[in-house]
Amino acid sequence: MKIVDHPSPNYNSRDGHEIDMLVLHYTGMASAAQALQRLCDPEAKVSSHYMIEEDGTVYRLVPEDMRAWHAGKSSWRGQDNINQRSIGIELVNPGHEFGYRPFPKAQMEAVATLCKDILTRYAIPARNVVGHSDVAPERKEDPGELFDWEWMAGQGIGIFPSPLVGEGGAKRRERGALKEDTFTKIPPLPSPLPQGERGLFLYGYDTTNLPKAILAFQRHFRPQLLTGQWDEECAVLLAALLKLV
């Protein structure tokens, strides 16, 4: 894995928060050069810890012990201070606005290598390896339905509801549980709730906008059919996920 240091000025202190999340994005810009420039532009006030080109080149932009500005208004498992507790990785891809396309093999292999390295250093539970759309379903679509989350789980990164990777996900969870999970317990929910909302909330999603939360769930775990509608297949997938966590 080739890493190029390209410091961004856009960061501040984590204020003592431990790192227990990993958030993946796409750049959503017309070119890698434009994305790199923006992530390092003081006026833009955005950044990430790493950016990965389609050829697999990794740019290190912000030190991991500092708070990069990548998640914005976001929430996961009842917490909204995502930047304080996460490492952000941007994958070069024009995104849905500029011609969304599959992530090349070299790029996927690089992000897997980088994530594995990060996971050796921090107690990040498998369910806390997420996409930007997972933590900000009302605003974001990235890294999107073409990102291969199932393959990543097979590499021991994150979690996916498949018999082929369920055991690996469990092993990742054990490695990520070397320290106590720092997330607070999910508060009790009012009942009754719309179909699927309780499970999505328990897994981690902000369900304020339920159709958007369902769509984010589908982008991550059922990318072949994006409807924003809850159905039996979604229920089966979510039940399998909840058993793994």
Looking at the overall shape, the CATH architecture of the largest domain is: 3-Layer(aba) Sandwich
SSE-based structural type: alpha/beta
Structural domain tally: 2
- Low-confidence parts: 164-180, 184-193
Share in β-strands: 5-15%
Helix % is: 25-40%
Gap from first CA to last CA: 31 Å
Helix and strand sequence: EEEHEEEHEHHEHHHHHH
What is the assigned CATH homologous superfamily of the largest domain?
Peptidoglycan recognition protein-like
User: Helix count, per DSSP?
Assistant: 10
- Overall mean pLDDT stands at 89
What does this structure look like?
The protein has 245 residues and is α/β, with parallel strands linked by helices. The protein has two domains: 3-175, Peptidoglycan recognition protein-like (Lysozyme-like, 3-Layer(aba) Sandwich), CATH 3.40.80; 197-244, no CATH class. The chain is built from ten helices and eight strands. It has helices at residues 32-39, 82-85, 95-98, 105-121, 132-135, 149-154, 166-175, 197-203, 210-221, 232-244, and strands at residues 3-5, 11-13, 21-26, 50-52, 58-60, 66-68, 86-91, 129-131. The strands form two sheets. The chain has a six-stranded mixed sheet with strand order 1-5-4-7-3-8. A two-stranded antiparallel ribbon has the order 2-6. Helix 8 (197-203) packs parallel to helix 10. It is globular and about 45 Å long. The relative contact order is 0.15.
